[in-house]
Amino acid sequence: MTAVDDRPACPGAAACADDPPAGTAPTARAWLAVEQPGPWPPCGPGPGPVDRRVGRLIAARAAAAGVRVLSVRGRGDRPPGSRTRRVFAACTDPAGPWLESGHIADSAELLDLDLGAMAAGVRPGLGRPVTAPVLLVCADAARDPTCAERGRRLTAALAGPVGDRVWECSHLGGHRFAATGVLLPTGYVYAGLTPHLARAVLAAAERGAVHPAGLRGRSTWSRPGQVAEIHIRRLAGVAGSADVTVPDEAARPGGALVTVRHRDGRRWTVDVRADRLSGGVGPPARAGLGVVATHLLTGPARPAPWRGREEAPPAVI
């Protein structure tokens, strides 16, 4: 029996200690994931000249619609001679997130999908609704071999306990946080995933909750919106995935003033400012975001301790 390393897997521990993951999730209101059993092409799902053309068309349409397209592959064996591919389509809208799954025999069938409607919350009728959360774990070596090494090791460790609810996926971004993954349909993205943390994330999602440890943000929101939502979750002890939304954001020099609304009527404004992160060595290398002030606009504040794995919550001014 092979032992599984369940320690936080962030490459470069010293750098990651000074590089909090909040506000680093990719931004997308909807996701399209297409099974690609073999090598992943750089331009989109599918091998061969025709599929490359389809991949480029889908990528252009997705970029215009705010949809993120990924290649995925499962850990289980495919039926011999199978010519179909699994497809997942998801919308992350907190008002009604959904996930559908179906099969296609030809990549050209993807061109029938209205990606703009998907991003607006319209189900494509792809196949069947998926009621259990699905975790897509980056295992793409093109950007950083660490993602492939840690991502594949994670999906292998989870193959038995969670079955086809965990898939390997192409580049998500944030390779320094490997193993990293996106949870569908909510769009919450996580850093430093281990088998234990991934199981906890899936278990929380089944209850309609957000597991706080390793949280990079919800892809629905902009980067400042992600930071503001995570900050309010820590400040007010909010657990439900549908409990808070980010209805408004006003850009300002060096950051944004973000409104966060709780379903019980409470509202906050969160002042999110850009900061420079050096990773602890040398000159500043990355731009980060942090909260400098929070104002409760309506309702009583209900602070609660933050029990996440990463940094302590920012001070409230």
What share of the residues lie within helices? 10-25%
Into how many domains do the coordinates divide?
2
Quote the beta fraction: 25-35%
CATH superfamily of the largest domain: Glutaredoxin
Segments where pLDDT lies below 50 for 5+ residues? 1-17, 46-50, 276-286, 301-317
The residue-averaged pLDDT reads 81
Give the CATH topology of the largest domain: Glutaredoxin
Query: Could you describe the largest sheet, including whether it forms a barrel?
Result: 10 strands, mixed
- Radius of gyration of CA atoms, rounded to a whole number: 19 Å
Number of strands: 14
Key features of this structure:
Glutaredoxin; disordered N terminus; Nuclear Transport Factor 2, Chain: A; ten-stranded mixed sheet; 6 helices; disordered C terminus; four-stranded antiparallel sheet; 2 domains; alpha+beta; single chain; globular; 317 residues
